[in-house]
Amino acid sequence: MRQIVWLLFCREWRLAWRRPGDLLNPLVFFAIVISLFPLAVGPEPNMLRTMAPGVIWVAALLATLLSLDGMFRSDYEDGSLEQWVLSPHPLAVMVLVKVLHHWLISGLALVMLAPLFGLMLSLPVSVLPVLCLSLFLGTPVLSLLGAVGAALTVGLKTGGVLLALLILPLYIPVLILGTGAVEAAMQGLPVAGYALWLGCLAVLSLSLAPLAIAAGLRIGVSE
């Protein structure tokens, strides 16, 4: 099984580099949203600092959502997803590799870019580690929950809107906790509680989401 996981991971990397647009679109969207925001509300540092946590987290959420529709689409169209379902190997483990790859090329990249845009929005340097920590714990949850919606809509030609309607309500707790952690750090309050809750959501999603994704793919492929 370990060899299968490694081969799947290498396959996902090769496919990703063949489609560089899929890698860059979420990051470019994230950068554009945050860069345009000061032009809309003005360059006043105190206002930008107050709104920065929400702006960065909403941009990260939407950037993740942008990349979800195609997570299983190409595999469904070329027939490899059907082979995954028929394979004797655990489907939950195989889709977990897919989600891990998605997070590495989108969620982790957003975590690395966040400090730069945090400084652009006048966030104090002391708050940047908390921002990165909140995104590091929260973006895997976004990818895992989003993959559940992507699996349920994989057989639909116009599943993007339905995917957003299914997933956005589930994203709200992550958004509240992520922005709350950064705002608490800005006010000098403890952030451990927010981090622990985000960690709990990450562990819960990691435990249950692969099973839900596998079930959704079986339903989508059988239709």
Automatic annotation (TrEMBL):
Where does it reside?
Cell inner membrane
**Listed transmembrane segments:** 21-41, 47-68, 103-121, 127-154, 161-182, 194-217
Q: What organism is the protein native to?
A: Halopseudomonas laoshanensis
The record's annotation in Pfam families points to:
CcmB
Q: What is this protein called?
A: Heme exporter protein B
Q: Which UniProt keywords apply?
A: Cell inner membrane, Cell membrane, Cytochrome c-type biogenesis, Membrane, Transmembrane, Transmembrane helix, Transport
This chain is encoded by the gene named ccmB
Q: Which family does it belong to?
A: Belongs to the CcmB/CycW/HelB family.
Q: What is its main location?
A: membrane
Protein function:
Required for the export of heme to the periplasm for the biogenesis of c-type cytochromes.
Q: How is it placed in the membrane, per its record?
A: Multi-pass membrane protein
GO MF entry, a single one: heme transmembrane transporter activity
Can you supply one Gene Ontology CC term for this chain's record? plasma membrane
What's any GO biological process attached to this entry?
cytochrome c biosynthetic process
